[in-house]
Amino acid sequence: MSPATDRAARTGREPVAPPRDRRGFWRILLAIVVLLPMPAKAVYYFLTPVAGDVTFEESVTSLEAHSGMLEALKWFDAVFVVLVIPATIAVAWVARRGAPRLTAIGGFIALSGFFAGIALLGGVMTPPLVTVQHDLDRTSMAALDEALHHEPLLGIASLLFIVGVVFGLGLLGEALRRSGAVPARVGIAVTIGGATHPFIPHHVGQGIGLLVAAAGFAGVGVALLRMTNDEFDLPARAAGS
Questions:
Q1: Can you give the pLDDT at residue 239?
Q2: Phi/psi at 53 (nearest 5 deg)?
Q3: For residues 197 and 42, what is the distance between their CA atoms, to the nearest angstrom?
Q4: What is the pTM assigned to this prediction?
């Protein structure tokens, strides 16, 4: 007779089945999610016909010349917008095991910036893209685009997003490097890819920067798959930096 059945016989209650261990589900789910947003955004940058800081009219003209790829661009961008936050949480979850304090700081900066940017900025459906796809009045949409560019709240959101990418991911990459949970090159890739991405000229160069970050995120995914369930929920090291 099992202990649970023996206790049930003494108390007169039905035996209660032990809860299912769902740690493996969450570990594998995070390992998959962490692989997707950075390469998706990199592909978006490679494919986008809009180069750098251009005017609304120039953006619309470029998008009109490549209207056939706009639907694909939206979906690649959507993958990034939807999954970058859970992917960042996965990076922090691995890094925290060896560098909890640095992970807490980097994770807070990265996630705060990403939440602000995704919640407040225009997201996938930008005014130039909507203008082209739905044949809207250019003059009215140009006025809307101009108003959005001069909205202080959106300016703050843009700044926070850049801070999240540069400093947040940079610190998380360093936390990964120090943690010992992944090879040092994984943390270095996250740091370099995040910190340099906004400052690389031309959208193709920015896409390459994101591919470097994607390599680091992929290393985190491999680490998650190799963990046991007990290692997955192992508390952070108390003395970690």
A1: 42
A2: -85, 90
A3: 10
A4: 0.84
